[in-house]
Every structure is written in C-alpha cells, then in structure tokens.
Amino acid sequence: MVKDNDFRINIKIDERNYPLTINRRDEERYRKAAKFVNETISEFRKRFQHNDQQDIMAMTAFQAALNYSILQDRQDYSQFIDDIKDLNDDISDFLKEQNWK
User: Fold this and answer.
1) pLDDT at res. 17
2) Cα–Cα dist 13/41, whole Å
3) What CA–CA distance (Å, rounded) separates 58 from 72?
4) Contact 59/44 with Cβ under 8 angstroms?
5) What pLDDT sits at residue 95?
6) What is the chain's pLDDT, residue by residue, as a tens digit (101 residues)?
7) Nearest 5 degrees, angle CA 13-CA 16-CA 20?
8) Which UniProt keywords are given for this protein, alphabetically ordered (predicted)?
C-alpha cells in the first residue's frame, strides 16, 4: 500500500540500481548510506585488489556493522554521563540542604 508521503528513489550500489520506496523525509539518509557503501567498496577494492567481489562486499558489510556498534556504544556511554550528572545534582542538593540547617 502506497502512502501519500512515500517516495520512489533509485539507489545505485556498486553500479547496480536498487529501486526503493521510502518516506520522502528519509531520502537524504538513504542517499548518504548508499554513498558510504560505495565509498567503502571503492576503498576496499584499492586496499585488497586480489580479493574477489564477495570478499569486498563482506568487508563492506562488516565495516558498516562495526560503525553501527561503535555508535551504539557511544549512545550507551552518553546515558551513563546523564546518570552521573543526575547523581551529582542530587548530591549538590543534599549538601545545600545540610548547609541551611
């Protein structure tokens, strides 16, 4: 079922076209992802010229998964920082109350 905000684009990855139906507001994200994949494929082809196509694609997928994992760890770390800030605020409030008595 096609929605009003659906948008049809063609993403080219490694010289192959992939037609996709996406939400119009996500177009830039999809194009950036395709650009990342193409740049990574090109980089691996230059670095590992003796490897076949499947090796290049596997390393590209691995690189994307690794980047995703790193971003997930950063998000978890930011939650930890927020928790420490909240704890620090609680301690400051407690100390202020103690000084007023």
Assistant:
1) 96
2) 9
3) 21
4) yes
5) 78
6) 556 789 999 999 999 999 999 999 999 999 999 999 999 999 999 998 888 889 999 999 999 999 989 888 777 667 777 878 888 877 887 777 777 65
7) 75
8) Cell cycle, Cell division
> What are the CA-CA distances from residue 53 to residues 41, 65, 72 (Å)?
9, 18, 29
Residue indicated by tokens 């196509």:
53
Q: Write out the two tokens for 32.
A: 């950036």
Give me 79's structure tokens. 């939650």
Residue 14's closest CA among 73, 72, 56, 62?
56
Q: Where are the alpha helices (DSSP H) in the chain?
A: 27-47, 53-100
Residue where the block lists tokens 């400051």: 92
Alpha carbon dihedral 70, 75, 81, 84, in 10-degree steps, equals -120
